[in-house]
Write a structure and sequence with these properties.
The chain is α+β, with helices and mostly antiparallel strands. The chain has helices at 11-18, 28-38, 80-89, 107-115, 167-175, 213-230, and strands spanning 2-5, 41-46, 49-58, 63-71, 97-103, 119-129, 138-140, 155-158, 161-164, 179-184, 187-196, 203-211, 234-240, 250-262. The protein contains 6 helices and 14 strands. β12 (203-211), α6 and β13 (234-240) form a beta-alpha-beta unit.
Length: 268
């Protein structure tokens, strides 16, 4: 087995063995061209035929994100997934942290990640929300002091990547006008972070949300209306499982485990 950079010509073979990954299919065909352009997309080959896939993104100088790990059904349980992840880990020595997101019922991938030193950092729930015309009292944050005491996460979701959420990151998101506040009587009830999906056109996302029930409902109404204005097809809402959301038009989807590995100093 050889691991090499993916080529455009590998697409047909890869999409073919990925087509039944989930009950509804797979998203690899939709993101393949973009991942090729980004680089660090790798295939495992046997006899020149692609039988594995893995993509790594260096989100900044602190973190790398591993995604799209796929192995042909005929080649599973042979250690190929482990070899592909190890290959990704070796690409950039300066990276301190690597993260992956795994659906909670994918026990084989969870066990593989744990055996390679990844631990569960957090639990995130995916919700589905349809765009519609709504009203809200939400404003865009202008100062980090406005969100003090409402952000309790070291990451936030952006296009299915969980990125670091330190003070400097939060300030940059505020600068980009992506931090939302639900305000009532000059009190901030909830905070949210939103974005447009990088991989799927007409999809809006909420990558972090926290606050009291009235505040979170206010933010969800705001993003519904934003989706309505932008003619979005759908809205994906990501929330830490400990911050369970309730709303009549909100549909609870899968639970995901955010896994993390802190690389030893000798690799830096």
């Amino acid at each position: 087995m050889e691991i090499r950079d993916a080529q455009p010509s590998d697409k047909e073979a890869v999409v073919d063995f990925c087509k039944n990954t989930f009950s509804w299919g797979d998203y690899i065909a939709a993101v393949w061209d973009g991942w090729i352009l980004q680089g660090n997309l790798f295939v495992a080959v046997e006899g020149a035929v692609p039988i594995g896939l893995c993509h790594i993104v260096h989100t900044d100088d602190r973190q790398a994100w591993v995604e799209g790990i796929r192995i042909h059904p005929d080649y599973r349980r042979k250690g190929y997934g482990r070899k592909m992840i190890s290959h990704c880990e070796s690409i950039k020595k300066s990276i301190k942290t690597i993260r992956m997101i795994i659906e909670s019922d994918n026990t084989s991938s969870i066990n593989l990640a744990q055996s390679m030193g990844y631990y569960m950092e957090d639990r995130w729930r995916l919700y589905a929300l349809m765009p519609q015309k709504e009203t809200s009292s939400v404003i865009v944050a202008s100062d980090i002091k406005q969100v003090t005491g409402l952000v309790f996460s070291s990451t936030y979701a952006n296009s299915w990547k969980w990125l670091p959420l330190e003070e400097s990151d939060l300030k940059e998101l505020i600068k980009q006008k992506r931090v939302l506040l639900s305000v009532q009587d000059e009190s901030v009830l909830a905070v949210g972070i939103w974005n447009k999906s990088e991989n799927f056109a007409n999809v809006l996302q909420v990558g972090y949300i926290n606050g009291n029930k009235n505040g979170t409902l206010d933010i969800l109404h705001f993003i519904q209306n934003k989706g309505y204005e932008l003619n979005s097809e759908r809205i994906q809402v990501f929330s830490q499982e400990k911050n369970s959301l309730e709303m009549d038009s909100l549909t609870k989807r899968s639970l995901f485990y955010l896994t993390r590995k802190d690389l030893p100093k000798k690799n830096l």
